[in-house]
Amino acid sequence: MLLVLSTSSALATNQTVKEAEVRRVVNDYLQQKCDNLGLEINIKKIAYSGDLSLSAGDLSYEVVAPDRWEGWGSANLALIVRVDGRVERNVPVKVEVEAMAEMVVAVRPLERGEVIDAADVAVQKRGLSRLQGRFVRDVDEVVGKRVRTAIRGNNPIRPDFLERVPLIKSGQLVTIVAENESLRITAAGKARNSGAEGDTVMVRNLASQKELPARVIDAETVKVDF
To answer: Residues in domain AFP-like (predicted)?
Structure first.
């Protein structure tokens, strides 16, 4: 991600950029990178010291971060300083940023196969450095889902650790519904694979022996387009 911040100067001789100005540019970049993400940002370290001696002319700054850096944790940035559009300095700057966010946390160990209840989780503020951006903000997003990877107590819940509970199981007898505004048709069928609410599964019409895709409505009913 690139962010260009610019300023200008029309000095007749060489110019000096103070250490405080370099830090301000990097600080502004870090703040803007996480802007509008709903995070609490604490810049713990900007590893830079000393003033920059540059040629006279208009100054512009560009901060370059590693491609996959999300904006928190440790990173090695590059501050590119241009004078009249020409690159004059490429300054390495190591930073450390702490980002905090409200997220859903398991209040007890959750074993694989358990279905999460509201009493199993709570919303707490935690750091993001070790989560790689994978966390859940809303309790409603986890309640009623099944644990596919065991979660330790007091640990944030990642969305990839959960799965929706199948309502229809493979081999189960179901009611196939096809309807429009004026007509409703039902038939007995058998599910060929499992699916949660809203999933599309293959079902076999027991009368015609034809297989067709259908959307899971509840634990006994699937609906086909009509």
So the answer is: 103-165
Distance CA 200, CA 209 (A): 19
Single pTM value for the model: 0.61
Classified by CATH at the fold level, domain 173-223 comes out as SH3 type barrels. (2.30.30)
Residues comprising the chain, all counted? 226
* pLDDT tens track for 71-111: 888 999 999 999 999 999 999 999 999 989 899 999 999 99
Parse the chain into domains and list their residue ranges: 2-99, 100-163, 173-223
Collapsing DSSP to helix, strand or coil, 39 comes out as coil
Fold of 100-163: Type Iii Antifreeze Protein Isoform Hplc 12 (3.90.1210)
- Write down the CATH number for the domain with range 2-99: 3.10.129
Phi, psi at 25, each rounded to 5°: -60, -45
Give, in order, the Cα–Cα distances in Å from 166 to each of 140, 163, 195, 216, 220: 18, 9, 5, 9, 11
Quickly state the pLDDT bin for 14 (edges 50, 70, 90): confident
Q: Tell me the C-alpha distance between 157 and 136, whole Å.
A: 6
